[in-house]
Amino acid sequence: MAPHRSALLGALVLALCALSPPARAATASRGAPQARAPQGRVSPMRPSTMVVEHPEFLKAGKEPGLQIWRVEKFDLVPVPPNLYGDFFTGDAYVILKTVQLRNGNLQYDLHYWLGNECSQDESGAAAIFTVQLDDYLNGRAVQHREVQGFESATFLGYFKSGLKYKKGGVASGFKHVVPNEVAVQRLFQVKGRRVVRATEVPVSWESFNRGDCFILDLGNDIYQWCGSNSNRYERLKATQVSKGIRDNERSGRAHVHVSEEDAEPAGMLQVLGPKPTLPEGTEDTVKEDAANRKLAKLYKVSNGAGTMTVSLVADENPFAQGALKSEDCFILDHGKDGKIFVWKGKQANTEERKAALKTASDFISKMNYPKQTQVSVLPEGGETPLFKQFFKNWRDPDQVDGPGLSYLSSHIANVERVPFDAATLHTSTAMAAQHGMDDDGTGQKQIWRIEGSNKVPVDPATYGQFYGGDSYIILYNYRHGGRQGQIIYNWQGAQSTQDEVAASAILTAQLDEELGGTPVQSRVVQGKEPAHLMSLFGGKPMIIYRGGTSREGGQTAPASTRLFQVRASSSGATRAVEVIPKAGALNSNDAFVLKTPSAAYLWVGTGASEAEKTGAQELLRVLRAQPVQVAEGSEPGRSGGQRDPLFSGNAALRFLSVMCVNHSGLDENEGCGQ
Fold first, then answer.
1. Cα–Cα distance for residue pair 74/483, rounded to 1 Å
2. Which of 195, 279, 297, 524 is 20 to 30 A from 587 via CA?
């Protein structure tokens, strides 16, 4: 008998001993094979955990893709790739999905699928193989239990042509094969205000109302429909769910169609039929949110006394993330919506971690939930968006909001100043810390602008130009010490709408999730840009226009007279900010660019640095202007058509006022105005 079979037989015997007598009797009556039990070898790398390594494990998760095995007489047998999607109803399967993240790490989703006619032995063997394979992958996989006819959306997304259920199985020799194509067709209702939930409802106009948002998922086409009375929270949630289905379940190949009430696309009407008069819908009140909070409960799992016990931690969500302790395992009960999550803390004992699936199954039985209730087992650090949505302000490791805290010099120790030198930045932690620089800004970047509830790529030719009426997401990739690093900046313009600011936060979190939760996130509001963000544009200044937008078809015409303040950080990175064009804006420490309809001026303050002068010249190139350069204290003026001598005292103020009057026709006392 092969060693991997005897090991599994022992594990299976223990599992069967835990079954109720009727269950054991049923198993015996099925005539389950008794002699061919799979075995494995104990991993020499981890002898204390007695990890059983089936020969198939050695091939698992080595590269991105899908791998499927069928349980055949207590053994794992690979399914040929050309038969992926075909499942025999009398069998159990183990499915591994491996995805390579942008940082090079591998991410695993591990499923075991149970046919309606599979035996208890086959079901138990599939569960044991799943636990063993997860252990072989160092506990990094997210585990899922799938039941025929009630598969998770994640699972269905692996099979672009759908699933085929075939009668029979190993015991029947693959006879009586009857294909049964399963098409993706489902409808979600998105409802709530502060606590928004997406719930699957019958695919019918009878499920619709004017007060909520709905998502009709047809596989290749996803229709997002919002009623005329839906609120912005529901609209944002609908966008998040729609894009999640497209990107995570369909690998980005489905099309999301966004529509409003009374503007339904033909594809939607083809499935639902003509739209009847819809009810108003219930108001999203505090009572509705309270009902959403009751949908899930959080339990702690413990075997401290030698027996597995489950105790209630919180009976309302959103939960506090701090309730999850690394030393324990937890169950998030969303069973009323057909979903159970088991969260495994990194420091939980081996028995608790390995018993996660069995604990979930026992919990389902105890709560009298249907046997097809879906189960996801999540390792700490591998939480999914569906799990995170039940927690208030979920924060991933290393997540950073904003440019950091500021401290008064009187409250900190005297620190020796380190001059900035890009050549030695990576070898001087003190320099990097003092100047707020993660690297020298020469890495790869992608920039998106928020349009409504979508992110739209920005033309690389305009990288570095930001509009106060927009919000943006900047993904920056760099290498440091041989390691890949990533930063996601979420830049929010001062005049960006509330909805777009909220959408930028959601889309930033979604991008972080797509990248495996490894990037550092930084929220940046206009006017608070950190030095590192300013350094990303190839030695050119980060240009920030006061308002307006750069979106296609919606560009705002610039003001006839514009004033830009150019200021450098201690690292030499520059920012050119458009300010109100009035004389009082001038500052001796900076350089300024004044552009009028007929001329441009570069005003250099006495304290302006070389970096600021250079940044101003780069700005003028972007504005396509040839300037007249004026140094502070040498401003020319005009009076009665004659050139005046140099002014004293407020010469700079006088200069700006005169230039505005000469080129815009405004009254001199108004400055440049708007």
1. 42
2. 524
**Residues written for the chain:** 674
- Residue 44 in any domain: the answer is yes
CATH assignment at residue 484: 3.40.20.10
Determine the residue type at 515: L
In a domain, 117, yes or no: yes
pLDDT digits (tens, 9 = 90+) for 211-246: 899 999 898 899 999 998 888 778 887 887 788 777
Residue 102 domain-assigned (yes or no): yes
Task: Tell me, yes or no, whether 642 lies in a domain.
Answer: yes
Q: Which residues pair with 521 in a beta bridge?
A: 488
25/280 Cα distance (integer angstroms): 54
| Residue 435's pLDDT band (cuts 50, 70, 90) | very low
Question: What are the structure tokens assigned to 146, written together?
Answer: 């799938």
CA atoms within 13 A on the CB side of 495: 12
> Which of 352, 376, 392 marks a domain boundary?
392
What is the Cα–Cα distance from 207 to 209, expressed in whole angstroms?
A: 7
- 20, 439, 509 from 516: Cα distances, Å: 41, 22, 11
Number of domains in the chain: 5
Instruction: Tell me which amino acid residue 625 is.
Output: A
What is the pLDDT confidence band of residue 291, given thresholds at 50, 70 and 90? low
CB 661 within 8 A of CB 668: yes
Q: Write out the two tokens for 178.
A: 């009857």
- Pairwise CA distance, residues 510 & 304, whole Å: 37
82, 141: one domain: yes
Print burial letters for 190-228: b (CB count within 10 Å at least 16), e (below 16): bbbbebbbbbebeeebebbbbbbbbbbbbbebbbbbbbe
| Residue whose entry in the numeric block shows the structure tokens 């040839």 | 626
Q: Domain end: 545, 571, 600, which one?
A: 545
* 8 A C-beta contact, residue 98 and residue 120: no
With beta carbons less than 8 A apart as the criterion, state whether 591 and 602 touch.
yes
108 & 231 share domain: no
Q: Residues 308, 454: one domain?
A: no
Q: Are residues 39 and 138 in the same domain?
A: yes
Ramachandran quadrant class, 631 (left: phi over 0; alpha: psi -120 to 50; beta: rest) = beta
Are 299 and 150 in a shared domain? no
Q: Report the SS3 class of residue 367.
A: coil
Q: Taking the model in full, what pTM does it have?
A: 0.39
Element (H, E) at 339: strand 339-344
In a shared domain, residues 432 and 505? yes
Pairing of strands 600-604, 638-639: unpaired
Query: How far apart are the C-alpha atoms of 626 and 30, rounded to whole Å?
Result: 89
d(CA 341, CA 84): 27
Contacts of 323 (CB under 8 A, 6+ apart): 298, 313, 314, 330
pLDDT value at position 268?
A: 94
**CA 268/CA 221 separation, integer angstroms:** 9
Query: Backbone dihedral region of 104: left (phi > 0), alpha (psi from -120 to 50 degrees) or beta?
Result: left
Q: How far apart are CA 426 and CA 271, in angstroms?
A: 58
- Please state whether the peptide bond connecting residue 379 to the residue before it is cis, i.e. omega within 30 degrees of 0: no
Residues ≥6 apart with Cβ < 8 Å to 417: 434
| pLDDT computed for residue 176 by the predictor | 28
> Same domain for 271 and 298?
no
Cα(302)–Cα(330) distance, integer angstroms: 9
d(CA 580, CA 565): 10
How many H helices and E strands in the chain? 15, 36
Domain residues for the domain of 190 are 186-287
